[in-house]
Design brief:
The chain folds into two domains: 133 residues, Enolase-like, N-terminal domain (Enolase-like, domain 1); 248 residues, TIM Barrel (Alpha-Beta Barrel). It has 13 helices and 14 strands. Bound molecules: D-glucarate and magnesium ion.
């Protein structure tokens, strides 16, 4: 007789490895990137020998939360991500400690349970894909494109970390420096759109930089993201100046009400990864008319399928989507690429910090990804389609053990060199 019973595999073990990799001194509204960026690598093992990968933030508080969540989902079925999510939410509902959100204070309002669940959902999908011998994009409904477009992410930056030699990117504190940086991005990776991280210099100087980039790259869509550094009045003034030059303006001013006020007065689409960062933020954003574009980020929207739920909300309310990024490794790039390939609502080129990471400082095989025309091919092998390199993982973990950085703190690092630096916003 044929055995028709279905044997479900179980999650037998979860390893969470904190890692660190070198990061250049990239400036933003809350300070400057430290010498290392922290991440965590999740390896979810099943009792039938599969291993799924996930990647998340590496801040100490977040690691503790992830460990508590991992303990709560042992023995569960990796195909039942609804149940995994409920378990994680139960554990997080008892979490009373604030902070540790991995974004240096820039985005802290997003739902803790979603953040903590995300790398486990990605690892579970990796396992499912391997078991079924299909790529993760297939599990997400199917890839509608075989490559995903990313945009080049420009930063004001110092030549190198203080007391160190200049890094190969060199200094970019004025339009000339940014144009040289943009050429490296465009020539080296083929990016066809560019985003400038603003909120660093007085707004008029950042507007000048956009004008200079427009003159240098007449056909490249441009975005500017001051991370809420400007008042409503400043946002309207600079927004009007940049009308016709920007593909979108990202978080010029803090809060949904302020964003709505700006949006009513300028003819530039407004995007956010700061004022709509969880499902609870959506109703007010719609009521107020705060934004045109939401930057999804599976790391804080609760994983790949929750990000697709967000896409459903955006479709209902006529909003568009792009994708947010923080300093990340290859497991995240694979997950981002699968998600975007299977989510037509993500109709803008996605952000990535990828070029800022030294190629040998990842945890996946060095040839896992190439950028061609700013695009990454959607992995076609089962699951996420990336393999962990044990030697690289070990090296990154040793770097974590060696550094005394235990949470991202762009402000503290900036204040070491500029003690009067004040991260409050709006600043201009
Ligand atoms: O890496 O400095 C940075 C960025 O500023 C990042 O932390 C932001 O979260 O890229 C992000 C953004 O779009 O706001
Ligand atoms: Mg942003």
């Amino acid at each position: 007789m044929t055995d028709t019973s279905i044997r479900r595999s179980r999650i037998s073990r979860i390893e969470i490895t904190p890692v660190a990799f070198s990061d250049p001194p990239l400036l933003n509204v809350v300070g400057v990137h430290e010498e290392v960026a922290l991440r965590s690598v999740v390896q979810m093992h099943t009792d039938d020998g599969l291993v799924g990968l996930g990647e998340s933030y590496g801040d100490a508080q977040h690691l503790a939360r992830m460990q508590a969540a991992a303990d709560a989902i042992l023995g569960e079925d990796p195909f039942n991500t609804q149940k995994l999510r409920l378990r994680v939410a139960e554990v997080m509902s008892r979490d009373t400690v604030s902070g540790g959100h991995g974004m240096s204070g820039m985005v802290t309002g997003s739902a803790t349970a979603d953040r903590v669940f995300s790398p486990f959902e990605v690892a579970a999908l990796d396992i499912q894909g391997q078991a079924l011998k299909v790529p993760v994009s297939t599990l997400l409904g199917g890839a509608l494109r075989d490559q995903v477009e990313y945009s080049g992410y420009l930063f004001y930056k110092w030549a190198g970390h203080p007391d160190q030699d200049a890094d190969p990117w060199g200094e970019a504190m004025d339009p000339e420096g940014l144009i040289a940086q943009a050429h490296r991005m465009v020539d080296g990776y083929g990016f066809r759109s560019l985003k400038l991280k603003g909120g660093v210099l007085p707004p008029e100087e950042e507007a000048e930089a956009i004008e200079a980039l427009r003159a240098e790259f007449p056909d490249v869509p441009l975005r500017l993201d001051p991370n809420g550094a400007w008042t409503v009045e400043t946002s309207v003034r600079i927004g009007k100046r940049l009308e016709g030059l920007l593909e979108y303006l990202e978080d010029p001013t803090p809060g949904r009400k302020g964003m709505a006020e700006v949006r009513r007065q300028i003819d530039v689409p407004l995007a956010t990864n700061m004022c709509v960062v969880s499902f609870a933020d959506i109703p007010e954003a719609i009521r107020e008319g705060s934004v045109d574009i939401i930057l999804s980020d599976h790391h804080f929207w609760g994983g790949l399928r929750r990000s697709q739920e967000l896409a459903g909300h955006c479709e209902t309310f006529g909003l568009h989507m792009s994708m947010h990024s923080n300093s990340h490794l290859g497991i995240s790039l694979a997950a981002m690429t699968h998600l975007a390939s299977a989510t037509p609502r993500i109709d803008y080129a996605c952000d990535t910090h990828w070029p800022w990471k030294q190629p040998d400082q990842d945890v996946v095989a060095l040839d896992s990804f190439t950028f061609d025309g700013g695009c990454v091919r959607v992995p076609q092998t089962p699951g996420l389609g990336v393999e962990l390199d044990e030697d690289l993982l070990q090296a990154r973990h040793e770097a974590y053990v060696k550094t005394d950085v235990r949470e991202r703190n762009d402000t503290g690092y900036m204040q070491k060199f500029h003690p009067n630096f004040d991260p409050s916003t709006p600043r201009w």
